[in-house]
TrEMBL record:
GO MF, one example: transferase activity
Protein name: CaiB/BaiF CoA transferase family protein
InterPro entries in the record: CoA-transferase_III_domain, CoA-Trfase_fam_III, CoA-Trfase_III_dom3_sf, CoA-Trfase_III_dom_1_sf
PANTHER family, per database record: SUCCINATE--HYDROXYMETHYLGLUTARATE COA-TRANSFERASE
Keywords: Transferase
Length: 403
C-alpha cells in the first residue's frame, strides 16, 4: 500500500494522557498528519508517568504507548502569540482534538465556537469526563473513577462471598481506550459527512457516556429483566460453561459457545452423560443450573494439564485458551507471526519496541512509520513548513517563550 487511507488529513492534537492521544495515534496510523501541541518544558503528563523508562531517554513507556507517528510542537497557549499560532494551525487543519475541562479553552479563544469561524470545515472533537452538558459536566473525570461510576467495576471481580471478593478495575485504562476508539470513528465519520455538507462539526465525547455505552449485553440484561447483574469472577452471565477452570498444573479458559461444542467437550472430558443430562442439554438450562453443573465440571478439568487440554480440545473444536502473562503473550508463535510487536527509531532512545495497530488493509498493518516524538522535536519544522515562518520569526518566538 503506497497511500494510506487518511493521507492528506491534518490533525491538530491538543489532548494529553490517554483517550485523546489514543484517538490521534489511530489517525496517525491510518496516514493522517498529526501535530501534537504540548506545553513548553513540560509536555504531555504521561511523559513523566514512569518507571519504566525507555533506555536513558527519560521517556516513559506509558507515553510511547499512545503517541506513535506524531509531530511534537511546543506552544504556550497562555500567551496571545501562542494562541495566534494555534489559530493559524487550525486554519490549515482538518481536525482538532482536545480534552480540556468544559469551557477550558474558551479563555484562549480556542473553543469550538471561536474556531469554527476561523475554519468552518474543522472537525472539532472534545473529550471530557462527563460531556459538554449535564449536572456533572464541570467535573474532572479519570478512567478509574469512571470504571466505578459507569458500572464496569460492579461486574468485574469475584462475588462478595468468595475469597478475594469485591469490585476490581480492569487492568488497563479500558474506558480511556474505548473513548479514543469512539473518537477516531466519529472523526472519520465527520470527515466523510463534510464531503457532503462542506462544513465541520463538534464531536462531544464523555468518558461516562462511553463506559455506559460499552456495557453491551450486561446493560441489556438489566434493562430487559430489571435484575441487577452481579460479579461472577471469570464466569459469563449468559453462557455456561464459559469461564476459567483450574487444571492439573494451572488454569484453562473454557469458552463453550453453543450446545454442539458443549457435547464435544463432555466427550473429550470422558463424561458423555453430562451432554445428555436434561438439566444441561441447552445453554439456557446450563445457565439456570450453573450452580449444579460447574461443581461437576471442576474435577474433570483437573485430570489433565493445561497444555494437554489445549491439544485435546483443539482436536474436538472446543474453544479454549491459556491465561498468559505478557512475556508469554509476546512469545506466542501466533502473536509473533502477526507482528504484533514492532520496532521504530526514536530520536533519543534509539530503536524502541511498540505494539502494532491490529488493523490491516490488504494484508498491511496500519502503523505510522515514526516513533513517538521527543518534546518539541518538530516545532521549527512545523512552523516553517505549515505556517511558512522564517528563521527570524522563529527565533523571536523562542526568545519570548512562546515556543
Amino acid at each position: 500500500m503506497t497511500t494510506k487511507p487518511l493521507a492528506g488529513i491534518r490533525v491538530l492534537d491538543l489532548s494529553r494522557i490517554l483517550a485523546g492521544p489514543w484517538a490521534s495515534q489511530l489517525l496517525a496510523d491510518m496516514g493522517a498528519e498529526v501535530i501534537k501541541v504540548e506545553q513548553p518544558g513540560k509536555g504531555d503528563d504521561t511523559r513523566r508517568w514512569g518507571p519504566p523508562w525507555v533506555g536513558d531517554s527519560g521517556e516513559a513507556a506509558y507515553f510511547l504507548s499512545a503517541n506513535r507517528g506524531k509531530q511534537s510542537v511546543t506552544i504556550d497557549m497562555a500567551q496571545p502569540a501562542g494562541q495566534r499560532l494555534i489559530r493559524e494551525l487550525v486554519l490549515k487543519s482538518d481536525v482538532l482534538i482536545e480534552n480540556f475541562k468544559v469551557g477550558g479553552l474558551k479563555k484562549y479563544g480556542l473553543d469550538y465556537d471561536s474556531l469554527k469561524s476561523v475554519n468552518p470545515r474543522l472537525v472539532y472533537c472534545s473529550i471530557t469526563g462527563f460531556g459538554q452538558d449535564g449536572p456533572y459536566a464541570q467535573r474532572a473525570g479519570y478512567d478509574f473513577m469512571i470504571q466505578g461510576m459507569g458500572g464496569l467495576m460492579s461486574l468485574t471481580g469475584q462475588p462478595d462471598d468468595m475469597p478475594g471478593g469485591g469490585p476490581v478495575k480492569v487492568g488497563v485504562a479500558l474506558t480511556d481506550i474505548f473513548t479514543g476508539m469512539y473518537a477516531s470513528n466519529a472523526i472519520t465519520a465527520a470527515l466523510w459527512q463534510r464531503q457532503t455538507t462542506g462544513t465541520g462539526t463538534h464531536i462531544d465525547l464523555g468518558l461516562l457516556d462511553v463506559q455506559v455505552g460499552v456495557l453491551a449485553n450486561q446493560a441489556l440484561n438489566y434493562l430487559t429483566s430489571g435484575q441487577v447483574p452481579q460479579r461472577l469472577g471469570n464466569a459469563h452471565p449468559n453462557i455456561v460453561p464459559y469461564q476459567a477452570f483450574a487444571t492439573r498444573d494451572g488454569h484453562l479458559i473454557l469458552a463453550v459457545g453453543n450446545d454442539t461444542q458443549y457435547q464435544r467437550f463432555c466427550t473429550a472430558a470422558g463424561a458423555p452423560e453430562l451432554a445428555t443430562d436434561e438439566r444441561f442439554s441447552t445453554n439456557a438450562l446450563r445457565v439456570a443450573n450453573r450452580h449444579i453443573l460447574i461443581p461437576l465440571l471442576e474435577p474433570l478439568l483437573t485430570q489433565f494439564s493445561t497444555d494437554e487440554w489445549l491439544v485435546k480440545l483443539e482436536v474436538e473444536g472446543v474453544p479454549c485458551g491459556p491465561i498468559n502473562t505478557l512475556d508469554r503473550v509476546f512469545a506466542d508463535p501466533h502473536v509473533q507471526y502477526r507482528d504484533m510487536a514492532i520496532n521504530r527509531q526514536h530520536a533519543s532512545a534509539g530503536e524502541v519496541k511498540l505494539v502494532s495497530n491490529p488493523i490491516r488493509f490488504d494484508g498491511v498493518a496500519m502503523n505510522a512509520d515514526s516513533a513517538p516524538p521527543v518534546l518539541g522535536q518538530h516545532t521549527e519544522d512545523v512552523l516553517r513548513e505549515v505556517l511558512a515562518l522564517d528563521d527570524n520569526a522563529i527565533v523571536r518566538l523562542r526568545d519570548d517563550g512562546v515556543i
